[in-house]
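Lecture notes, part 5. Sequence design as translation. It can be helpful to think of inverse folding as translation between two languages: the language of shapes and the language of residues. The source text, in structure tokens, appears below.
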């Protein structure tokens, strides 16, 4: 039901969240499992009434995303509820990578350490709280792989049934991870965009009654989880925004919400208002947003994905146009790199910083290197590059193995030229 802008909802289990607001026309709605505007079909997102939030409040909170609960649509006692409690992953000072690429100050935000080894635990953690509040009994999603694992685990912990949908042909590690928690894992014979269409049909059908699709009917809540990346990076830099950040794009939700998080920190006076540039990163084999950027379009032409970066393989990204706006507004850009460069960048990050990225991290690191090569990023500015997933999930992307196999003797070791 639509509500007027001034009228707060009576539902208070969303903490500072007061309403859903249409990104296009500003129409406001009660906090319900609604994701598109009735008037213009624009995406809905959570609007807030924050009150006073201090650095001290946040710093005295738990060592996970719930330290930011006063900035998220979750109940105030969220830390006591059964949840995977992701977050507070390392911001690695990447001096050796910086030296290799010529940066003065470079950090890797390494989200591979989350409970199911990708940033998706952040978004699911918020969606689970919404699902609980709305009384859903089954957690579901359309996924390029990582989200399926995060939903399976979160459902197990919080006592939901789960049924997740993935495109056929995903990496084995992601399928095993999605399935081990005991929920249903359904591979759809098609690509992610086919999976997503199928899920939208399910939601409209009685079969989908009681189902919370974290990235469809719960998307407004789910998206807010990505803001925690913005908060953590700022806090870990000593309550300062980075001057430049490189973010991977699948649907584009993570990128748009990191920008939302930075803006909130500025408005609340938690960080100094200084300019930052956001750079989006895609693999060439699925780069509809980068292509629109290159061609100066503000609409996205959908593509059929063909890349090893399967976690980013969304051919029709819902938030693509907003990504273009943000790149333009902040003075960044949207860039793409081919699969060979992705693999090379995975190796570069591993060799210089000991961080084993999944292909999505290869995409961001590859784009970072390309931007330096082409003189389109300021190597003097404080820069953060995201690694959003663990390389153990995409082992087949990298050809690496033992240096030699030798008999257990010094003579054999020496004879093999290893001494
Ligand atoms: C590892 C990883 N990084 C980044 C993304 C991008 O997410 P978004 O859809 O928010 O752009 C995904 C999406 O699945 C992912 O799995
Ligand atoms: Zn609208």
């Amino acid at each position: 039901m639509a509500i007027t802008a001034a009228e707060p909802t009576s539902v208070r289990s969303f903490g500072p969240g007061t309403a859903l607001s249409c990104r296009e026309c500003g129409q406001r709605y009660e906090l319900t499992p609604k994701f598109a505007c009735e008037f213009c079909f624009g995406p809905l997102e959570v609007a807030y009434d924050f009150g006073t939030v201090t650095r001290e409040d946040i710093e005295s909170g738990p060592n996970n995303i719930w330290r930011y609960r006063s900035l998220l649509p979750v109940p105030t006692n969220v830390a006591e509820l059964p949840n995977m409690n992701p977050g507070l992953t390392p911001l690695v000072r990447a001096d050796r990578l910086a030296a290799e690429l010529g940066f003065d100050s470079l950090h890797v935000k390494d989200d591979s350490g989350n409970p199911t080894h990708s940033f998706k635990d952040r978004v699911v953690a918020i969606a689970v709280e919404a699902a609980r509040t709305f009384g859903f009994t089954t957690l579901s999603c359309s996924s390029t792989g990582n989200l399926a694992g995060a939903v399976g685990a979160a459902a197990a912990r919080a006592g939901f049934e789960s049924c997740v949908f993935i495109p056929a042909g995903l990496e084995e590690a992601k399928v095993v991870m999605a399935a081990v928690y005991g929920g249903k894992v359904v591979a759809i014979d098609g690509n992610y965009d086919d999976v997503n269409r199928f899920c939208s049909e399910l939601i409209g059908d009685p079969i989908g009654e009681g189902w919370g699709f974290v990235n469809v009917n719960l998307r407004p809540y789910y998206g807010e989880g990505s803001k925690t990346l913005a908060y953590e990076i700022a806090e870990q830099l000593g309550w300062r925004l980075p001057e430049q950040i490189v973010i991977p794009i699948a649907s584009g939700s993570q990128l748009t919400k990191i920008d939302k998080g930075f803006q909130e920190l500025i408005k609340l006076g938690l960080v100094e208002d200084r300019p930052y540039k956001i750079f989006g990163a895609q693999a060439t084999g699925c780069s509809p947003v980068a292509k629109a950027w290159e061609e100066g379009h503000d609409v996205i032409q959908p593509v059929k994905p063909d890349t090893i970066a399967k976690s980013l393989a969304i051919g029709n990204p819902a938030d693509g146009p907003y990504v273009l706006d943000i790149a333009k507004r902040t003075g960044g850009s949207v860039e793409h790199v081919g699969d060979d460069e992705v693999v090379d960048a995975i190796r570069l990050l591993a060799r210089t910083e000991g961080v084993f990225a999944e292909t999505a991290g290869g995409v961001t690191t590859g784009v970072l290197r390309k931007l330096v090569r082409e003189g389109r990023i300021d190597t003097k500015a404080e820069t953060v590059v995201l690694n959003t997933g663990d390389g153990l999930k995409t082992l087949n992307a990298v050809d690496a193995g033992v240096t030699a196999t030798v008999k257990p003797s010094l003579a054999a070791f020496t004879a093999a030229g290893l001494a």
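The translated text above is only one of many valid answers, since several sequences can fold into similar shapes. Residues 22, 24-25, 27, 37, 39-40, 42 surround zinc ion (ligand 2) (CB under 6 Å).
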